[in-house]
Amino acid sequence: MPFTWAYEPAVHSSYSPVTRIAFESELEISFHWAAPLSQMLRWRNPEVIDYIREGIQSGQFEILGSSYAQNVMEATSDWINAEHIRYNREVLKEIFDFNPVGFWNPERVWNDIFLNLLCDHGYTYTPVETKILGSSEILQLRGESGNLTLLPDDQAVLRAFDSAVWSGNPDEFIDLMRKYDEENKIAVYAQDTEAIGFWQIAHGRDPKEIQQNYRKLLAAVKDNTWIEVVSLGKMASFSAREVSELGRGQATWMVDSARYDGYEDYFDYLQNSPEIRYYSDLYRSIEHKFQDLRYPVHKVAKVLYLKSQFEFGCTPGSMGGDHTRYLLNVPGDMTWEGVRYAERLLDYSPIQGRKIEWINLCGHPLVMWQEGDVRALLSPYGGRLVELIIAGKIVSPSPLFYNRNGKIHELDMPNPVYEFPEYGTEMIHGGTLLEDSLSVDGVPQGANAVIKKIYTSESQQRIFAPSLKHTHLGTQIFTHVPEVQFFTRLGDIVFVKKIQVGRLVTARYEFYAREHTHAITLSVSNEVSLDPLVLMNSGRPHYTDGRISVGGNHFSVNHESSDVSPPALKYVESTFAARLISEYSFHITRDSPVSFLMNLHSDFTMQ
């Protein structure tokens, strides 16, 4: 469930009540919780995670592993599939403290080439549709890396169970179970959790009524004690018939969907869909860049890359960005942007010989600074240091925190606010360095004080027009340039900001008055925040009660000036960020310009 517009309704109509009712039933149940959804639940609705963990600890529930972003493995490369499976297992271990051995195959498309891949990652069984199995038996495939038990995923059982949930009458399902009992059949019911509550909303049904139907159905199953309900793990221990191969098969629903779109079947769609081909080429175009990952920032890039492939193969690849926006602040809502964002994280990492490109989260061009193993992004508005990476480690702001409905708001943060009508205001917080707030003669300048022109100290060539509305420049890259100068005018005041970036960040501020005397107050904010991956997998409860936090003074600021007294310093620390505000107060006249130097040591750490 990646979509932010659907998340809250799905939680309240399906995820939370279905988990609770299943737990109360005391029946053995196997759950597959997609890892991105599990991360979001842990952050926003940890009570659902608590139910699952309690069920696991009691032995009632088991968790199935899967591909991280539910990409159809037939549509993606072996390397991508292995990375999805590996990271999915890592997330499930972190959130549920559980190592799954059962595998949920996304969208039910089967190929025998998955056998060794799954066995290599510790999986021993997986459900497969009975029409692909060719029988209702439990089968076992033997491979080079191990054996894989194939459990009969029965579509007739799925239809009967779903019908009972919709109607509230369990008789049809019980009759089918009686028939299966007479035939000594074994069957797996496997369905989306959203099928119990959330899907019915679109048809005008009350999800509470559907939840009661689900409760009634589980009670009927328990009352008929001849029906044995077991977890998939226990089912996999039953005797199985060994087969040498299964071949290649497609899920029933995917065939129907492909034919609706004019394709012969799913495999025809996979081969001939222009959207699938486009995104397949896009993924392949950067896949090789992940082969040599040496720095912490690369893990962030890889996770973004995997997230952007949400359900790829049954969709044209345009779904992934919306949910990652909450967790890792990916710009926009399209897979393309998520992939490009991941690529840029790699491109400005310390691996040499790669093209560097960037687009600001808000769509404005940025300045990229490259000097040895130092990479920096500077905002054209304000000369703000958006991101600083030294030897592959993000040592300044990382996209981090959103504040839902204003319930957790510990700092007065001058950061972007995005409007999501479904939830109200969501604040996504990422710390920034060298963010300025300027007052002239006691009047805050606000947007008037933003930098509108950028120069290099070598050529004094203006690279951005005063109005960015008339420029289509992307990122301007400076390499081996002594400093970048930012310039703007406020009436008769000229404000210049010069930045040098290295292992020491240096900012020189210069103020000139052409006519009058002015009182100037300049506040410079520097902030760091928690690593987003640590935060995402730890969950909001650990975050809000301080079990994970930014701790210690991360800043060392040296002031050099004969014109201005040292600034007043205010250090603010919270559970999610550490912030230092340096406030300068001085006067400028026509004959007495002012300049001062701020050295910001980049010895930051993030817990």
Describe the overall structure:
The chain has 607 residues and is an alpha+beta fold. The chain has three domains: 4-269, 7-stranded beta/alpha barrel (Alpha-Beta Barrel); 279-347, no CATH class; 367-400 and 411-601, Beta-galactosidase, Chain A, domain 5. It is built from 19 helices and 27 strands. The strands form seven sheets. It has a six-stranded antiparallel sheet with strand order 18-20-21-22-27-24, with no helix packed on it. A five-stranded mixed sheet has the order 12-11-10-9-19, with no helix packed on it. The two termini are 30 Å apart. Residues 318-334, 350-363, 398-429, 458-474 and 602-607 have low confidence and may be disordered.
Topology, pairings included?
Blueprint: H1 4-25, E1 29-31, H2 35-44, H3 46-58, E2 61-63, H4 78-96, E3 110-111, H5 114-120, E4 125-129, H6 130-133, E5 139-142, E6 147-153, H7 155-167, H8 171-182, H9 198-201, H10 207-223, H11 232-235, E7 241-243, E8 248-249, H12 252-260, H13 266-272, H14 274-287, H15 296-307, H16 321-328, H17 335-347, E9 367-371, E10 374-378, E11 385-390, E12 393-394, E13 399-404, E14 417-420, E15 424-430, E16 435-440, E17 443-444, E18 453-456, E19 476-479, E20 484-490, E21 493-500, E22 504-513, E23 518-529, H18 532-538, H19 540-544, E24 557-560, E25 568-573, E26 577-588, E27 594-601
Parallel strand pairs: 1-2, 4-6, 5-7, 9-19
Antiparallel strand pairs: 3-8, 5-6, 9-10, 10-11, 11-12, 13-15, 14-15, 16-17, 16-23, 18-20, 20-21, 21-22, 22-27, 23-26, 24-27, 25-26
